[in-house]
Amino acid sequence: MSFIKERNLLLDKKEAFYLYEQSSPWATFIGFIGGVSTDDYRNGRIIKHEQTLTKREKMFCSYLDVCGFNAEPVLLTYPEHISAIDAFKATKRLERPEYDFTTTDRITHRMWIISEEEDIHRIKIAFEKVEALYIADGHHRMASSALLAEKKAAENPDHDGTEDYNYTMALVMPGETLKISPFHRLIGKEIDMTDEQLLNLLETKFDIEKVKNKFLPSGKRQFGLRLKNGWYAISLREFEGDESALCHLDSVILTETILEPMLGIHDQKTDKRIRFIPGNTDLSPYEKSIDTQKAWALFTLCEITADELYAISDEGSIMPPKTTFIEPKLRSGLTIMNLK
């Protein structure tokens, strides 16, 4: 409250959406910030692809309850192409943004306030055509907000479903504008196997080609492999999974054909012999760690598509740990939603 009194934070006097743009030398993202109903999450209209931990849900729920506000949006996405939304965004971006600043990481943030009743109505009507929203990033934030809403409803004898705590703040943008990178897998030196033994095992299922430069796969069922003597491109010869979207995911194929049967890594959440490297990261330091025998091997994976995310979510499947590194990454405190 002191930030509001000192006008470090300004409380909107009218109902509003926000058009938010994040741009950098390598990408631009744009979408709407607003409140989404926790009922839609419970009823399956906001769909997840990641398993949440009950302990973390309760911890974040307690945090929201004590603070009384939500300071970081959940990132939601949708597959439909909505011409009315695209047209509105294009027109709005011609106006001067309310906020326009660049942070030290060379990312520029712009935000337009949408408070005219006619504009708000247009956006609401347009999004009514969207059958479902999909969580791209922020599964625990979404789950904890739903948990908070249930708690507050039980405590409020006058609860009618319109209270602020029934909503959570979200940034909503079409899937085609997201950047979904994989997590690569760095394998520790603790694995009791030589490079030659690994390559011999891989030859039973994969075509292997020694390559001169770093190999980042551009196709499915392909992986890059970095060992001390350089890079290899490996391609699965025969797919043995079922027809589910989950089984076709490269992180699942890597797990079921290499990590578990060949390397004995069965629990990627807890096994200290494996590390996850975001797909937007410079791999040079990890190559050096292999050359100096601080690590043993690095597997690189192909990018994941938004369609894969939707298909896995729709069938009710859960992705393995550290499958997607999704951008944009959002700043806490740029917008704050009151939950009282």
Write up this protein.
With 340 residues, this protein is of the alpha+beta class. The protein has two domains: 2-177, no CATH class; 180-324, Conserved hypothetical protein from pyrococcus furiosus pfu- 392566-001, domain 2, CATH 3.30.1760. Helices cover 28% and strands 28% of the residues. The chain is built from ten helices and 17 strands. It has helices spanning 2-5, 38-42, 54-67, 83-92, 117-127, 139-155, 195-202, 250-259, 284-291, 306-314, and strands spanning 17-23, 28-37, 46-47, 69-70, 74-78, 99-102, 108-114, 133-137, 167-174, 179-188, 206-211, 222-227, 230-236, 274-278, 295-300, 324-327, 337-338. The strands form three sheets. Strands 3-8-5-9-2-1-7-6 form an eight-stranded mixed beta sheet. Strands 10, 11, 12, 13, 14, 15 and 16 form a seven-stranded antiparallel beta sheet that branches. Strand 1 and strand 2 (28-37) form a beta hairpin. The two termini are 12 Å apart.
Radius of gyration: 23 Å
Structural class by SSE content: alpha+beta
| CA-CA gap between termini | 12 Å
**Nearest-integer average pLDDT:** 93
Produce the secondary structure layout.
Layout: H1 2-5, E1 17-23, E2 28-37, H2 38-42, E3 46-47, H3 54-67, E4 69-70, E5 74-78, H4 83-92, E6 99-102, E7 108-114, H5 117-127, E8 133-137, H6 139-155, E9 167-174, E10 179-188, H7 195-202, E11 206-211, E12 222-227, E13 230-236, H8 250-259, E14 274-278, H9 284-291, E15 295-300, H10 306-314, E16 324-327, E17 337-338
Parallel strand pairs: 3-8, 5-9
Antiparallel strand pairs: 1-2, 1-7, 2-9, 4-17, 5-8, 6-7, 10-14, 10-15, 10-16, 11-13, 12-13, 12-15
